[in-house]
Predict the structure of MFS transporter.
Amino acid sequence: MSEAETHAGAGRGSARAWTVWLAALVAYAVAVLHRTSFGVSGIEAADRFGVSATVLSTFVMVQLTVYATMQIPSGMLLDRFGSRAMIAGGAVLMAAGQGLLSVTHAIGGAYLARILIGAGDAATFIAVVRLVAMWFPARRVPLLTQLSGVTGQAGQVASALPLVAVLHARGWTTAFGGLAAIGLLAAALAFLAVRDSPSGHERPERSGGVLAPVRAAAKEPGTWLGFWSHALSQFPLNLFLLAWGYPFLLAEGLSSEAAGGVMTVAVVASVVSGPVIGELTARHPLRRSWIVLGTATTVAAVWLAVLVQAGPAPTWMLVLLAAVLGVGGPSSLVGFDFARSFNDPARLGTATGLVNGGGFAFAVVAILAAGVALDTHPGPELSLGAFRVAFAIQGVLWLVAAAGLLVARRRTRRLMASRGVVVPPVREVLARRRDGRATEVFSRSRRG
């Protein structure tokens, strides 16, 4: 069989493409299980390592910080070695971390384990995003990227239940040793089933040194448009789900069961809204930033309504808050579509890693700032008043990210205009539609 025939038989959107994607999704779902496993075992972890809840929260911070700081290095390695190697290698690293966690009783060993898990997790999702761009037609990429993210959210809910059951029935060593075994199986699946592109193992030739992809991606305004889009949409959701949402809901007067139910609403909202945002992104590529700005503005408005309440907010308002925060997850994935649209395939991993670092870097700052505000607030610890001050700090980060997005969008549109793609004002587009004339046209080729 000739190379052309091989490419045609295993090309973009083929049955082989779906097999590659599904294998990568399994590995990503397992990565999400590793990422969230410590969070559902907090009581057992506190007993095993003899630490307080405050110290226990630093394990999450360490893992999240490693994940964020590893985004650009992981993206560079992804461009160099491809998705197959990064997904399989990351799975092995995470399995090693869980294996260490299953046997250690030392707090230092636990920190090292979470560092390994954060490092292994860092490249998994961006490697899946790169696979989607390599294996599927451009029109399908936004929706499939969203579905990839949804898989992780759904896996987080489904995976926690059996893990907790095994933890309670068989103990810490068996539960986390089992996670290590699952991680090795995920690595084997990725190695056997994932291929970097329809043409096989080849990757574009690069020149200019190790940092050349970073410099090229950083010079592209569209990359920064993706960075600020991801930061603006992602950090409020991470602040809520990964750190302070649950105790905030308890301070609002909810029971632990009700608080857990409200937290689940955010996950459900992400799963439901992901395909919708993916389709809107594909249909209206010139208006992608409006999806991000619209979502972020809605989140800010609902947060403001919750924080200005004279007493505890009504339950329906807290449910609404969780829902709009959940939509922020899929909205942040629009940033990856900007990275794909405005970067060459040779630096796509680097650009995607840079974008992915936006939301997580802002989340680390937000979580730390909220923690400082809670610690220094006068009065009862973790009171509703303290949480209102802590969450109000989000406003500063929101303004910084929104300003960055608008500046990057202006620069991106100026560059697009120099390349012959002019983005007409919304009022002009609406006027044309009312007049029955032609609407926007945008080429969804390599550049879009």
In short: Residues 71-103 form the longest helix (33 residues). The chain has two domains: 12-198, 211-438. The domain at 12-198 is CATH 1.20.1250.20 (Growth Hormone; Chain: A;). Confidence is low (pLDDT under 50) at residues 1-9, 438-448.
